[in-house]
Amino acid sequence: MLEGSPALYFLYAGLPIAIVLSAVWTYIRIQDEIVEIHIRPPAVSVRSLLEAARPSQKLVWYRLLDVRDGETDIQLTVGHDIYRLKKSDWEAPQDLVRQLQELNDTDRSHI
């Protein structure tokens, strides 16, 4: 099937394209993967894997607007962003949900 086809051309062109695409995809994935949630009443700071890799970067604090506890995930509305956290990725998801709901309830009681 490939007999007589210039396979070396596809190797030279395909390999760099594959490497660039995999690097871009990895960058997108580590930018979207939430690994840290810092809680300081009345605000929270959410950091991605990329941001957590740079510990010198200051935390950005936002108001927690909503917490929804689903069967397999936790949905957070922080500032203008919505985050979905898989419960299986967190060590103690029920403690996390409890703390976030307490923060959310405390914040609403001051309004």
Beta-strand content: 25-35%
- State the secondary-structure class: alpha+beta
Total count of helical runs of at least 4 residues? 3
* Beta-strand segment tally: 5
Helical fraction equals 40-55%
Gap between N and C termini, in Å?
Answer: 72 Å
Net shape: elongated
Would you give an account of this structure?
With 111 residues, this protein is α+β, with helices and mostly antiparallel strands. The chain has a domain at 33-109. Helices cover 42% and strands 30% of the residues. It has three helices and five strands, in the order H-E-E-H-E-E-E-H. It has helices at residues 7-32, 49-52, 93-109; strands at residues 34-40, 43-48, 62-69, 73-78, 81-86. Strands 1-2-3-4-5 form a five-stranded antiparallel beta sheet. It is elongated. The mean pLDDT is 87.
Give a short overview:
By secondary structure, this protein is an alpha+beta fold. The protein contains 3 helices and 5 strands; from the N terminus they run H-E-E-H-E-E-E-H. The relative contact order is 0.12.
